[in-house]
Amino acid sequence: MVVVAVPGLGRLLWGRGISALGDGMWFTIWAIYFTRERGLSGATVGLAMALAAACGLAAAVPLGALADRRGPRGVLVAITVVRAAAMAGYLLGGGLLPFLVATVGFVALANGASAVRTALVAALVSDNIARVRALAQQRVVQHVGNAVGAGLGALVLTADRPAGYLLAIVSNVLTFLVLAVLTATVPAPATLPTAAGRPRVRAVLRDLPYASVVGTTALLSLCWAMLSTGLPLWISGHTSLPLALSGAVVVISSLGIAAGQVPATRLARTPAAAARTTVWSGVVLAASCALLATTAGGGGTVAVAVVVAAALLHLAGELGYVSAAWGLSVPLMREEARGAYQGVAESATAAVQIVGPAVFTLALGTGHALGWLAVGALFLLAVAPVPALTRWAVRTRQPAETPAPAPVS
What are phi and psi of 407, to 5 degrees? Predict the structure, then answer.
């Protein structure tokens, strides 16, 4: 299939990559900046992040619905500008309240921005296969930008000077403003009217087939906390392996995503194929958990090889999961309410991400090796109903046949 270039997608791609560079730099330094430069306690920072995440969970669907009414381009530009202003708020010092306002403004809008961005791509591209491919390309440039930004953040940490942290914040503000400008130059897609004249958030939330599919599929996003929380805790507390191995696994994952995310979209060309890929991904992630469980108390070359093998399985599972999530959430949404539907999908993923670190902390802290097996079982249970739920959702997307008019007597 030949995909025709769509005006504006290239600018979105560049903007996403540039803003990801700023994000990668920020996420590398923020914990040190808040606790050492701003003098905030770890508990305060954690509570602020939790509050912001909860606000983001609640805001994704309304922001998506707003994009359906006002157009995704303008709403995405506005969200991006607000996030830039919130990041600039970190330059102002002050007490707890300014910090909370800036954190909620920056973090809480991230999920809504992702939902609106997906809706914008869907509005610019009519073919579902091309939509998923475009989303995969954005994820690739995001990972590349994050990697480069993380390298710059490492330089800031190495210098460890107040001016360096302030420069990093200013740079992140600028990357978001560049993203806003590039997004504003994208052609404005036409909004689709609904029967009532506007998308209804309640109607989207009552779409149980769609919510069931994206909700169960979102459980696989635990794979992200598996690398960021589970693996470092496991290596440091239950093996004799060097902690640097967890960093090496992240590098493997990042390179693999950059190389494999776009090709992996071929596994999710239709909802049925995406459902099968979801099942396959859950099985592979469960196998990765089982491998990691075998390294309990281990060290040396063999244990390193097992961890690397588990990392490769994790990579395959993540690539399949992400492609399948798009292959289900995009084709199954109602076209007249793209933003609201993507808000539901983002909210489901955000809810899992909030509890993800706690899941691995609890499972590995209390169950040790059995904790990995428990998480693997959770992956298997999550994907088991996806094919049946997808068939249900597909049936409800199909328009009902219009009955023939009764004959006039």
Answer: -65, 145
93-107, 121-135, 180-194, range with the lowest pLDDT? 180-194
Largest pairwise CA distance in the chain: 89
pLDDT in tens, 125-172: 988 999 999 999 999 999 999 889 988 988 998 888 999 999 999 999
The answer to whether residues 103 and 49 touch, using CB atoms and an 8 Å cutoff, is: yes
- Triad 291, 296, 300: Cα angle to 5°: 90
User: Which amino acid appears at position 119 of this protein?
Assistant: A
Q: Give per-residue pLDDT as tens, 252-280.
A: 898 899 999 999 999 999 999 999 999 99
Give Cα separations from 168 to 35, 165, 331 (angstroms).
Answer: 16, 5, 39
pTM: 0.87
Q: Report all structural domains of the chain as residue ranges with CATH numbers, in order of start.
A: 9-189 (1.20.1250.20), 204-396 (1.20.1250.20)
- The number of beta carbons lying within 10 Å of the beta carbon of residue 137 is 20
Q: Which pLDDT does position 205 carry in this prediction?
A: 83
C-alpha 77/C-alpha 367 separation (Å) is 46
Q: What is the pLDDT of residue 406?
A: 44
Which value, in Å, is the radius of gyration of the alpha carbons in the chain? 22
Distances from the Cα of 106 to the Cα of 63, 155, 258, 316, angstroms? 14, 23, 26, 31
Closest CA to 359 of 374, 345, 380, 343: 374
Is the distance from CB of 392 to CB of 211 less than 8 angstroms? no
